Amino acid sequence: MFDTLQDRLASVFKGLRSKGRLTEADVDSSMREIRIALLEADVNLGVVKEFIAAVKERLVGLEISKALNPTQQIVKIVNEELIAILGGETRRIRFAKQPPTVIMLAGLQGAGKTTLAGKLGRWLRSQNYSPLLVAADLQRPNAVNQLQIVGERAGVHVFAPEPGNGVGDPIQVARDSITHARNKLYDVVIVDTAGRLGIDEELMRQAADIKAAVNPHETLFIVDAMIGQDAVNTAKAFDEGVGVDGVVLTKLDGDARGGAALSIARVLGKPIMFASNGEKLEDFDLFHPDRMASRILG
Ligand code: GDP
């Protein structure tokens, strides 16, 4: 992901470097090229406009012709503004003062929620937390089983409805899991909720009801970075319907253009907190806006 964008930006900067002295026209034409490169990478139009305006405003204040190395200064400004678009600082989990910290996962089916639950559990365990995964996705017959398999691989316990108790009520399961975590001294509860193929009212209502029942410290929206502008639209719908504290981008290892995913933090006004870039449980980390900007700028 981002390979084409990276190549395009690298060639803009290479062109600038080869010039020695830069004229205003040089700078204008490179800003145009950057704009096109971002749009072609599927970055949201509003975000592109805001980004270009911010960079241009800073360039006006810069005495390009007298600067020792003007291209380097432009690269620096582009880098800083890109970091700002991506959310600025790395946003870490806000742990509860009084455990357990409750983290709710929401998103469309296939976004990578169940896999993410395992990744997050494993990651928390590596930092000496004692997480509990909760199977509150009772919509798909196989979802509980799938979470149990992921939990086993991650070495994290799974709280699920007793077999034979019928379909079960996901809200009750979520509520019971908090009591269970308190009794058994788990300090982070990760609640996996049902996904649907598209946004629907029932899904939103159920997620909102689960949220009201467990009062999470973090509600994370899990989104497949491969789905383009739909990622931004779905994120908005979930934020309006359920309320989202942060975003997790999955499938960043894919070959889509990826720009839409990069627009989410700015469009939503919510941070991207984690990045998932592979099917293995260890393909997961905090999202660092500065590292992502460096990756894009090469
Ligand atoms: P859920 O329906 O949201 O719970 O999604 P799953 O966790 O079942 O994931 C759906 C598919 O995406 C599975 O085949 C996962 O192995 C795959 N997947 C999840 N995360 C990633 C990722 O970061 N990269 C890639 N390439 N595949 C992923």
TrEMBL record:
* EC nos: 3.6.5.4
User: What is the enzyme's main class?
Assistant: hydrolase
A biological process (GO) of this protein is: SRP-dependent cotranslational protein targeting to membrane
Swiss-Prot/TrEMBL keywords: Cytoplasm, GTP-binding, Hydrolase, Nucleotide-binding, Ribonucleoprotein, RNA-binding, Signal recognition particle
Q: Where in the cell is it found?
A: Cytoplasm
Q: Where is the SRP54-type proteins GTP-binding domain?
A: 271-284
Give a GO molecular function annotation for the protein.
GTPase activity
Q: What GO terms fall under cellular component here?
A: signal recognition particle
Q: Kindly list the positions annotated as binding GTP.
A: 107-114, 192-196, 250-253
Q: Which reaction does it catalyse?
A: GTP + H2O = GDP + phosphate + H(+)
The entry's function note states: Involved in targeting and insertion of nascent membrane proteins into the cytoplasmic membrane. Binds to the hydrophobic signal sequence of the ribosome-nascent chain (RNC) as it emerges from the ribosomes. The SRP-RNC complex is then targeted to the cytoplasmic membrane where it interacts with the SRP receptor FtsY.
- Describe the protein's quaternary organization and the partners it interacts with: Part of the signal recognition particle protein translocation system, which is composed of SRP and FtsY.
For domains, the record's comment is: Composed of three domains: the N-terminal N domain, which is responsible for interactions with the ribosome, the central G domain, which binds GTP, and the C-terminal M domain, which binds the RNA and the signal sequence of the RNC.
Member of which family?
Belongs to the GTP-binding SRP family. SRP54 subfamily.
The protein, known as: Signal recognition particle protein
Tell me what organism the protein belongs to: Tessaracoccus oleiagri
Q: Which residues of the full protein are shown?
A: 1 to 298 of 520
